[in-house]
Amino acid sequence: MKYYELLSMLYDFEYKLAVMYEIFSKNYANDNEACALFSKMCTEEVNHSDAVKYLMRTVKGNAPGEVSVDADLGQMEAVIGKVDDTIKSELPIPVDEAVRFALFLENNSLELLYKTASAQVDPKFVRLVEYLNSGSTEHQAKIERLARKRGLLPEEAA
Ligand SMILES: [Fe+2]
């Protein structure tokens, strides 16, 4: 896979998360807490996707964009597919399910980003992945807090 394609998949992932969180924030408009969290996460995912886009612009059509990177992104493709299905589904899923799914995604994205980071083709890419990772870690913590509050995850041991 070419470096540019890797970036474009990352872009897809971040951008589709933003779209999905926006849908969630609208679907659960009467649930203030969940709505506020999803809406904030949407804004942040937009920022993440912008950061990826920025790097894509700098490599597009240039030799670095054509470099082959060794990244197995089948898993990421599968995750993006799940996000797509959720975006396209006409019936909103129950809020608890949305919280669980968001948790699954943020957990997974950490792992996925970590894997792509092994394709250290470009120091800028390493910094980008660090930035995206810190975003996912933050999201993971926030969504976990909400999930615990709602009994979707066991209470943390004191
Ligand atoms: Fe993100």
Question: Which labels suit this protein?
Answer:
binds fe (ii) ion; single chain; mainly alpha; 158 residues
Query: What is the CATH topology assignment?
Result: Ferritin
So what's the oligomer here?
Answer: single chain
Fraction in beta strands: under 5%
Mean pLDDT: 88
* Helical residues, percent: over 70%
CATH architecture: Up-down Bundle
Terminal CA distance reads 46 Å
Given this structure, which CATH class is correct? Mainly Alpha
Please state the overall shape, judged from the principal axes of the Cα atoms: elongated
Ligands and ions found: fe (ii) ion
CATH superfamily: Ferritin, core subunit, four-helix bundle
For the secondary structure, the number of strands is 0
H and E order: HHHHHH
Q: Characterize the biggest β-sheet.
A: none
Query: Stretches where pLDDT falls below 50 for ≥5 residues?
Result: none
Domain tally: 1
Radius of gyration from the alpha-carbon trace, in angstroms: 16 Å
Derived from helix and strand composition plus strand pairing, the structural class reads: mainly alpha
